[in-house]
Design brief:
RNA-binding, alpha/beta, single chain, about 600 residues, Isoleucyl-tRNA Synthetase, Domain 1
Length: about 600
RNA sequence: GCCCUCAUAGCUCAGCUGGAUAGAGCAACGGUUUUCUAAACCGUCGGUCUCAGGUUCGAAUCCUGAUGAGGGUACCA
């Protein structure tokens, strides 16, 4: 039973005893005491005033007196307007260190027996990953980690869009202009090589459109009639027909892309339990169309196309199967959703996909519910905002993208430069240095992207490098390294427990109170699918520690129990920083 | 046209189911190192929480409308 809960119950009793009213627990509002006042926990007494029929101050005093007598942890209280500030015994906070915070499983919730799937990344195989994908990957990975900490069994999957007209465009351009160029011959990373031909296609295609327009066609006609797009469509038909030559080329080029992606995933530190490929799933969903027609959820128009009418739900009529019997995007997704459920029977399924697809997922989930799929209630679209450049949205074809691999390299280079300027890593081997730069560079990048609430759009200015000071990954990593340095010097081990019973300084108590909040933060982050909560929390914690570090001596304290206690407090902070950063997929260095 | 999302300090962002005088970081300016890592710490400056109504003892937070930005919109994914 948490202290908050104890206080809530006691308050409930107090109100019954004092004012003869039974107030439900939800109406007993506790909050953190603001820094400028004394105390750690605050009861808002405004809601009680109408029962006490006394002034907020008087009500606060009466409840405060009652609580002080009934709850042993409460040593003092003060009342300011409608706020009853409760001071908790230092012993309570000190006990938390031994009883909870320093336990190895602190912050790991007991298994809840539920399975959740997290689908993320989901790239197209016609171009390399860019900053938008990076946000997606980090979000997906972090959410998976957080849910694991919250007690779920998590299955991470990647649904690869490896077929379709866009893939054929790259293939065609390579056939026409590639001169057998391979990753080996060009020393280009496979995904970049294929992406290069996607851009070449687009340029050549645009040129053809212009030429056709010059010869009198409208833009619309020109787009349809350009020889290149015709050839690409032909390639798609041959692919669907299983044409050996096309399939061989497709496999070859895709394998280049996969090798490239794997390299990027590895650098980012993300992974998957299972890969789904659209080339395997694009024909799925037709059974579901039949099912929907049989259940009268769908209807057929005279041209043979199949639709669902969602106007009663405030949405539109939506096409679910083309007149020629071929699938559209949502047909595949219906089928894939069923396939995933058949594979894993998970309780929940999270799709990490950008907010440009909000409408699509609204429709997808609604259709599955209308089809009576009970598991559809566990579907959730984790919608995140686009990453914008100062010039606006990133567009692959126009070359206005921040490439993932380039960005990672730049971050590592910046980390290297900054670290060398500070010159604190004498004695590091070359290998250790490289590893450190990687940890710091990626730490800065990941923290930068994860500290922002997922649904908000995010601004990235390539001309301004990502910060290494203030609310940043390296700041937190630095705090960890500092603590580590102290613990090493003190030869501190986890077993060095003491029965410390002196009173706490203000910083010590603030730090302890912050440490006790860790599990609550995980809970909120998990429920809201938002790693940003974790990021902001660790930052607060690191700030508090730095204040503590600055204000209170640790190694130099002669009073042994105090020294011991401060070492433990340091160890606990380091421990939470490390664990919390791991939830974000960020590593912490022992020295920097 | 219709639908969805967002709007907080010069910039980038926090602000929990409505609660105290709206907080951080960056930038700017000033200070702190013979003392455990100065990627740090302390201070100053900086606000009509886009605007207008409404609900409430109490609104940055909830409701309605307006404005601005972004996204979606029936055979692209």
């Amino acid at each position: 039973m948490t202290l908050e809960y104890t206080i809530q119950l006691a308050t409930q009793k107090a109100i019954t005893a004092l004012y003869k009213t039974d107030l439900p627990l939800e109406q007993i509002v506790l909050q953190e005491t603001r820094k400028e006042f004394e105390g750690q926990i605050t009861l808002v007494t405004f809601p009680v005033v109408r029962f006490s029929k006394k002034s907020p101050e008087q009500t606060g005093l009466e409840i405060g007196e009652y609580l002080k007598n009934q709850v042993q942890e409460i040593v003092n209280f003060n009342v300011i307007k409608g706020f009853l500030n409760l001071s908790i015994n230092d012993t309570y906070w000190i006990d938390q260190l031994q009883k909870n915070i320093l336990k190895p499983d602190y912050g790991q919730f007991a298994p809840n027996g539920k399975k959740v799937m997290v689908e993320y990344s989901s790239p197209n195989t016609n171009k390399p990953l860019h900053l938008g994908h990076v946000r997606n990957n980090l979000l997906g990975y972090a959410v998976a980690e957080i849910l694991t900490a919250y007690g779920y069994e998590v299955i991470k999957v990647n649904l690869i869009n490896d077929r379709g007209i866009h893939i054929c465009k790259s293939m065609l351009a390579w056939q026409l202009f590639g001169n057998d160029e391979t990753p080996e011959s060009s020393r280009l990373k496979g995904d970049h090589l294929v992406g290069k031909y996607y851009v070449i296609f687009d340029k050549a295609y645009k040129k053809q459109i212009e030429e056709l327009q010059a010869s009198g066609q409208t833009e619309e006609e020109a787009k349809k009639n350009a020889p290149l797009i015709r050839q690409a469509q032909d390639l798609l038909l041959r692919w669907e027909a299983g044409d050996k030559e096309v399939i061989t080329l497709w496999k070859r080029m895709n394998s280049w892309v996969y090798t490239g992606f794997e390299e990027t995933y590895k650098k980012l530190g993300v992974d998957f339990e299972k890969y789904y490929y659209e080339s395997n799933t694009y024909l799925l969903g037709k059974d579901i169309i039949e099912e929907g027609l049989a259940k009268d959820v769908f209807f057929k128009k005279s041209d043979g196309s199949v639709w669902i009418d969602l106007t009663a739900d405030g949405l539109d009529e939506k096409l679910v199967l083309r007149a020629d019997g071929t699938s559209v995007y949502i047909t595949q997704d219906l089928g894939t959703a069923q396939l995933k459920y058949n594979d894993f029977q998970m309780n929940q399924s999270i799709y990490v996909v950008g907010n440009e697809q909000d409408y699509h997922f609204k429709v997808l989930f609604l259709i599955l519910k209308k089809l009576g799929k009970t598991w559809a209630n566990g579907l959730y679209h984790l919608s995140y905002g686009m990453v914008d450049l100062p010039s606006g949205k990133m567009k692959s074809r126009e070359g206005t993208v921040v490439d993932a691999d380039d960005l990672i390299e730049e971050m590592i280079a910046t980390a290297c430069k900054r670290t060398e300027e500070l010159g604190k890593i004498d004695g590091f081997s070359e290998k250790e240095k490289r590893e450190l730069y990687r940890v710091i560079g990626l730490g800065a990048l990941k923290y930068f992207l994860l500290k922002v609430e997922p649904k908000k759009r995010l601004m990235f200015d390539p001309n301004e490098s990502i910060d290494f000071q203030g609310n940043t990954g390296p700041f937190i990593q630095y705090t960890y390294a500092r603590i580590n340095s102290i613990l090493t010097k003190a030869k501190h081990t986890q077993q060095d427990g003491t029965n410390y019973s002196s009173s706490l300084t203000i910083v010590e108590r603030d730090l302890l109170v912050a440490l006790t909040k860790y599990p609550t933060i995980i809970e909120t982050a998990a429920k809201e699918h938002s790693p940003a909560h974790v990021a902001n929390y660790i930052f607060e914690l690191a700030k508090l520690y730095n204040k503590f570090y600055h204000e209170e001596p640790i190694l130099k304290v002669e009073d042994l129990p105090i020294r011991q206690f401060r070492l433990q407090l340091s160890a606990a902070t380091a421990y939470i920083i490390k664990k919390g950063m791991h939830l974000l997929g960020i590593l912490v260095p022992n020295k920097m």
